[in-house]
């Protein structure tokens, strides 16, 4: 046998594989059985694994092209059942007439093709290299294959990446490269799955290795709960990272992490002794690096900066003053989210009426309106609050894994299944609440099984003949029209009527009539104990005019950034992120922010906003620019916002007046 870095372990893996092959009735002279489904089934197979294929091809392979382009090797990607999904590279080393064994859909499990890199990696769950004579079948001994399993964000084995050749590549080099490639694929799968909604912490022991595939990745929520991690993070921290709080992992606070400038390395200490370098990345709907505007004002003086125009603090509504401040990670109750909007109040009243009855609820609303917050409030108010609330994002789980995630599976139910099996998310919600978010994205096949569970109140795990009773409150949510999906055959009609006992519609933030109370309520919820200054009238006016395309989720992000920038000061326009003003500027006849600019222009004898031509048609008169520049104390960002122009344009105009070199 060829020498390998892991010596005896590798030899045992090969011997065990050969023993399995004999148990399957294979002999070294057996010809490989090239099991390949029909063309139609191949199409279904590729569609089901499109996310994995596209991630591998577009986001990982280009980084290794310079190594693989001249190596006469073939790169193969298989699914968790050993069926080839795609291959790239050079097939010239293949034996004549054997190329069909490398077509999409062909199975490479050991039962059909003996000991081989793909099949044995699947059988063992380990990276492995199978040299020529280590193949059980003589027909496969013309090549050397190096393969490593791919695990998704939930640590389920979903595929294998293989590099095969007729040994042109050094053996140890190839296996190491395959491990790097699969680690890159796993990292990208996690990033692509969670980047829209959650925070990322990337960390490593060396600053120069922060961007490598061997860095640890943690995905955490706004409340600090770690909801996913790559395998490298487990190794670096030496901990089981399932559903822990990130503050328990490092000697820092959640506030420091989420407010740290994006992309700027920091030092963290774990367990009081292990030092790491780390960077934080925010959800994609907060694509800003908030600047601390206080530094611009205070750099030239030891005195605290004062606003250019006095801004009065707006007192909190009595409604909030009567309640003790809730920590940001403490769930709301239904009463707490009813701040006076008629549509929200109606939804709360209706939900209370059926709170402890066996009636399913379907919540409609745009992305970010607070559907999950409403469900958490409903759960906390119900008699099931002492039991689990299990939230499932049907759009986030890959289509081929939804069944096993929801219904569970017995050990050995399929290739790559955990040896302990899985009880499934529905059974985890027993006696509690099951929240199916983005229900319209659930595959039709899974819809049929879910309907059966709701009808029979029993769950049968994959690979099992035993059913388990479940007692759940079902709450679903969607931002799609399920009626339209039913008409188009995308959603089962019988399931639609099963999940729509009570339909609730949550309005978008721009249409809510309780915005002032909501602004203060969220400020109160996310502020620190020493942040008592509140929101300025200037900011409240901007908040009321903003279109809020990201709804309440966007509002929370803006407030968190503003709180970080203002520290203990009154929150003013200068503490708001750039993207906030970009949304305002996209609206017709709106400049942002306007309060300070209008008051300043009025003092100088200029026309007020109500009488002025929109800024995108006629900007502020240039003769007032020096005065405005002086009034803003040289703050370029603030002045550009007041004028509704880019900083580049402002620099050019200032240069014309000799105000900027």
From TrEMBL:
Residues 602-622 are annotated as: Disordered. Pfam families: AAA_lid_14, GAF, HTH_8, Sigma54_activat. SMART domains: AAA. One of its GO terms (molecular function) is ATP binding. Gene3D superfamilies: 1.10.8.60, 3.30.450.40, Homeodomain-like, P-loop containing nucleotide triphosphate hydrolases. GO terms for biological process: regulation of DNA-templated transcription. CDD domains: AAA. Keywords: ATP-binding, DNA-binding, Nucleotide-binding, Transcription, Transcription regulation. Residues 337-564 form the Sigma-54 factor interaction domain. Transmembrane segments: none annotated. PANTHER family: TRANSCRIPTIONAL REGULATORY PROTEIN (PTHR32071). This is Sigma-54-dependent Fis family transcriptional regulator.
């Amino acid at each position: 046998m060829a020498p390998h870095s892991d010596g005896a372990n590798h030899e045992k893996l090969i011997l065990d594989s050969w023993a399995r092959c004999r148990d399957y009735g294979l002999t070294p002279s057996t010809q490989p059985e090239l099991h390949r489904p029909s063309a139609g089934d191949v199409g279904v197979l590729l569609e089901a694994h499109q996310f994995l294929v596209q991630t591998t091809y577009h986001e990982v392979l280009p980084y290794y092209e310079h190594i693989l382009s001249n190596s006469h090797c073939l790169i193969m990607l298989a699914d968790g059942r050993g069926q080839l999904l795609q291959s790239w590279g050079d097939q010239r080393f293949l034996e004549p007439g054997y190329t069909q064994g490398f077509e999409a859909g062909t199975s490479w499990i050991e039962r059909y093709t003996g000991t081989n890199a793909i099949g044995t990696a699947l059988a063992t769950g380990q990276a492995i290299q199978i040299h020529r004579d280590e193949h059980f079948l003589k027909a496969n001994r013309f090549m050397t294959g190096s393969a490593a399993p791919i695990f998704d964000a939930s640590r389920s084995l979903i595929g294998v990446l293989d590099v095969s050749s007729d040994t042109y590549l050094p053996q140890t080099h190839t296996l190491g490269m395959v491990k790097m490639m699969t680690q890159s694929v796993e990292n990208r799968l996690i990033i692509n799955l969670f980047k829209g909604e959650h925070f990322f912490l990337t960390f490593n022991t060396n600053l120069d290795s922060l961007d490598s595939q061997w860095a640890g990745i943690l995905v955490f929520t706004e409340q600090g709960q770690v909801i996913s991690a790559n395998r490298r993070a487990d190794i670096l921290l030496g901990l089981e990272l399932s559903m822990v709080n990130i503050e328990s992992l490092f000697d820092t606070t959640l506030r420091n992490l989420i407010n740290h400038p994006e992309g700027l390395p920091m030092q963290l200490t774990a367990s009081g002794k292990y030092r790491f370098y780390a960077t934080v990345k925010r959800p994609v709907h907060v694509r800003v690096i908030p600047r601390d505007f206080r530094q611009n004002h205070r750099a030239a003086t030891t005195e605290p900066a004062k606003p250019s125009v006095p801004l009065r603090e707006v007192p909190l509504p009595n409604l909030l003053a009567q309640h003790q401040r809730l920590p940001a990670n403490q769930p709301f109750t239904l009463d707490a989210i009813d701040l006076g909007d008629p549509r929200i109040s109606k939804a709360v009243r209706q939900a209370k009426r059926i709170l402890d009855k066996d009636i399913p609820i379907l919540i409609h609303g745009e992305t970010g309106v607070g559907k999950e917050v409403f469900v958490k409030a409903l759960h906390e108010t119900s008699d099931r609050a002492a039991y689990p609330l299990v939230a499932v994002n049907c759009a986030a789980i890959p289509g081929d894994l939804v069944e096993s995630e929801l219904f569970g599976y017995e050990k050995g139910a399929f290739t790559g299944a955990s040896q302990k099996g899985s009880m499934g998310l529905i059974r985890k919600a027993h006696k509690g609440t099951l929240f199916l978010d983005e229900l319209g994205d659930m595959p039709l096949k899974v819809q049929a099984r879910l309907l059966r569970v709701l009808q029979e109140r029993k769950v049968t795990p994959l690979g099992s003949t035993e059913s388990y009773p479940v007692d759940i409150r079902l709450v679903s949510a969607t931002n799609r029209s399920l009626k339209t999906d039913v008409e188009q055959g995308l959603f089962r009609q019988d399931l639609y009527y099963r999940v729509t006992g009570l339909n609730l519609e949550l309005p978008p933030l721009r249409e809510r009539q309780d915005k002032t109370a909501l602004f203060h309520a969220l400020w109160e919820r996310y502020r620190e104990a020493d942040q008592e200054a509140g929101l300025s009238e200037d900011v409240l006016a901007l908040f009321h005019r903003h279109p809020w395309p990201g709804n309440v989720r966007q509002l929370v992000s803006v407030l968190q950034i503003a709180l970080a920038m203002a520290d203990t000061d009154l929150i003013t326009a200068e503490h708001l992120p750039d993207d906030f003003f970009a949304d305002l500027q996209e609206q017709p006849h709106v400049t942002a922010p306007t309060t300070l600019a209008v008051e300043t222009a009025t003092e100088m004898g200029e026309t007020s906003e109500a009488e002025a031509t929109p800024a995108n048609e006629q900007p502020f008169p240039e003769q007032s620019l020096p005065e405005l520049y002086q009034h803003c104390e040289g703050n370029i960002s603030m002045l550009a916002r007041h004028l509704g122009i880019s900083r580049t344009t402002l620099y050019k105009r200032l240069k014309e007046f000799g105000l900027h070199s």
